[in-house]
Design a protein that fits this description.
The chain is mostly helical and 298 residues long. 63% of the residues lie in helices and 0% in strands.
């Protein structure tokens, strides 16, 4: 009898111990199902919703339908909209159509425009065509332009061609340049080449430089190479340094190497230290790990 009571007590205790875990799992599952239903997912099980949860889901579905209608999605069901929502949607659709017609988009429905809106749309379309012609776009319809506008467009085309030629653009048509414009283009090309040479760019053509410009470029190239050597860059050409510059760079590097060895920070080459420098770095002169060149200079 005692054994039976003891066993029953243990079983009950185990059940009470697991009950919070089971309740938490059920609560989590219910919460997930509610979220699925609010999002309109197939995993939603409406039979498990309470009355208040069903009401919340209905509100979420209605809001989603309003959003779908506002975005012209196929899932929009206008029959489920409230009268006020239907009016607001019609107004938004009309305003969007007016904007589409003014912007020349294919979704424009001219039949839905009022007379004043149609006139505004026509003016916008006319202005858009004029700008397209001035900018040289393929959508330009010159037949819709007045004689004065054609003159303005032709002037814009000529000016754009001069600009393209000066900037080296591929659309440049030299055959349409006047003699003065050709001179301006040649001067611009020459300046572009000088700039390219001064900056060491591949587009530089030294043969087109004047003697004075060539001398200036040599100076620029030398200063650029010295800067690269000073910074330890891979573009440095040590053979182009003067004797004084090479000596200065060597002294600077020697000092940097000594400082790195002395502080124990940065790249250090002990073999390039003088005897005195090695001793200051390693006070123990008998340290066999230190190899010093007697002829090293500071």
């Amino acid at each position: 009898m005692k054994f039976s009571l003891s066993k029953r007590f243990c079983v009950q205790a185990a059940c009470f111990g697991f009950s919070p875990i089971l309740l938490f799992a059920q609560s989590s599952d219910v919460t997930q199902n509610l979220a699925d239903c609010k999002n309109g997912w197939e995993s939603c099980d409406r039979s498990r919703l309470s009355q208040s949860e069903s009401a919340d889901v209905a509100v979420a579905e209605h809001r989603r339908d309003v959003s779908n209608c506002r975005n012209s999605f196929q899932s929009c069901d206008r029959s489920k909209l409230m009268p006020q929502e239907t009016i607001a949607l019609a107004l938004a659709d009309h305003q969007q159509n007016v904007a589409d017609c003014k912007n020349g988009t294919t979704s424009c429905d001219h039949s839905q425009l009022t007379q004043s809106e149609a006139r505004e749309s026509s003016v916008a379309q006319y202005q858009r065509n004029l700008v397209d012609c001035q900018d040289g776009f393929s959508d330009c319809d010159r037949s819709k332009l007045t004689q004065a506008e054609l003159g303005t467009v032709d002037l814009a085309v000529r000016e754009r061609n001069v600009s393209d030629c000066k900037n080296g653009a591929g659309l440049c048509d030299r055959s349409k340049l006047t003699s003065s414009q050709t001179s301006e283009v040649l001067a611009a090309e020459h300046q572009h080449n000088v700039w390219n040479c001064e900056n060491g760019w591949n587009e530089c053509n030294h043969s087109k430089l004047t003697a004075r410009e060539a001398a200036q470029i040599v100076g620029s190239e030398h200063r650029r190479n010295l800067s690269a050597c000073t910074g330890g860059e891979e573009t440095c050409d040590y053979s182009k340094l003067t004797s004084a510059e090479a000596t200065t760079l060597a002294a600077t590097e020697h000092k940097r190497n000594y400082t790195a060895c002395l502080r124990g920070k940065g790249y250090c080459d002990p073999s390039r230290l003088s005897v005195e420098e090695a001793r200051s770095v390693h006070p123990n002169a008998n340290d066999p790990s230190v190899t010093v060149h007697e002829g090293s200079s500071r």
